Amino acid sequence: MPDARLVDSKATFASLSHILDARILRALADMGFARPTLVQSKAIPLALENRDILARARTGSGKTAAYCIPVVQKVLNAKMSIAEDDDKRQATRVLILVPTRELAEQVSAHLRSLLAYCGEEVIVANVTSGTTAHLQKTALSDNPDIVIATPSRALGLLQSKNLTLALVESLVIDEADLILSYGHDEDIRQIFSGGYLPKMFQSFLMSATMTEDVEVLKGLALRSPAILKLEEDED
Ligand code: ADP
Ligand code: MG
Questions:
Q1: ipTM of predicted assembly, 2 dp
Q2: Residue 40 CA, ligand 1 centroid: distance in Å
Q3: Which ligand is nearest to the CA of 96?
Q4: From start to end of 1-102, where are the E strands?
Q5: How far apart are CA 201 and CA 94, in angstroms?
Q6: CA distance 173 to 150
Q7: What residues does ligand 1 touch, defined as CB less than 6 Å away?
Q8: Phi and psi dihedrals of 232, rounded to 5?
């Protein structure tokens, strides 16, 4: 559970029912998420207006759900507006970049919980976890809606054309302060400059601290972002 001081005591997830699918609200209730944290209550409505998001909030403030909830909602929205038999219905719409396999596992588990009531509607593929090239290829062959990868893995799969981002609507960089220090710098640059991404998509940059690295990523990834800085809520 997040620190009580990080929770938005004026809001509940139920009060977001005008923008969040009932299946997500039900899953959140099962997960014991009653009130959003401050970063969640700021990020979710802005993200659903398609704003780019730069969120700096300390560890434990709930940044995972702050981007997972809106991207899942956006996938559901997209599917609602596309006919069952349209080829574009099943496509990778979200790429989540993380610095480590461990974090990829956590994000993947969080998404599975959020999607508990969505059946097969939204497919998630974590392509980091020690899987072979063959398994990754199989995981990607049905164009999962949401792909979780380290930057090097994502770039390799883009270069081998096993991953396509032509229909991506959201790109998330989690633990942005760590991701460059893990040596992912060049890979991220190539993901952005290699012609893999469509003209328009939304970016999220999630970070516990504002480092020079995060400033570099901000220049690379964000267009007039909503900047959510929550350090004023700390001690
Ligand atoms: P961060 O990425 O900011 O470090 P996490 O997203 O990992 O934080 O969340 C920290 C913990 O708080 C996790 O165990 C998560 O399940 C829990 N949590 C996040 N948001 C809520 C919420 N609104 N209500 C209850 N628990 C929450
Ligand atoms: Mg985190």
A1: 0.99
A2: 10
A3: 2
A4: 53-56, 94-97
A5: 10
A6: 10
A7: 1-2, 32-33, 35-37, 40, 57, 59-65
A8: -65, -15
For residue 57, the ligand closest to its alpha carbon is: 1
Mind listing the pLDDT tens digit for each residue in 178-194?
Answer: 988 787 889 999 999 99
pLDDT means per 10 residues, the chain with 235 residues, are: 84 95 98 96 97 95 98 96 90 97 96 97 89 76 94 95 96 93 88 96 95 88 90 52
pLDDT of residue 231: 67
Q: Which of 24, 33, 54, 112 to mutate to test the pocket of ligand 1 (most atoms within 8 A of CB)?
A: 33
Q: Which residues contact 22 (CB under 8 A, 6 or more apart)?
A: none
39: tokens are 């970063």
Q: Would you say 102 and 125 are in contact if contact means Cβ atoms under 8 Å apart?
A: no
Ligand 2 center from residue 59 Cα (angstroms) = 6
